[in-house]
Structure prediction request, 73 residues.
Amino acid sequence: MPRCSAGKVNTIVAGLEANWPIGVIAEQAVVSPMTVYRIRTSLDLRGEPYPPFVAVIGRPRSLLPVHEEVSVA
Prediction:
């Protein structure tokens, strides 16, 4: 999912701070209401409009937890 431009994000954040209705913010920023809800949730949880990028470092595991479970009978 591509991110919104900085101008749209600023419009959404300003609308949320001004307690505008979600529909009005979505119309002003020309985005879907679901995008406004997502950005609002991210602001509430992390204080940022989008979650931070997380890079997976290292090789993937060769054994899954399911494979590590050994039943000895």
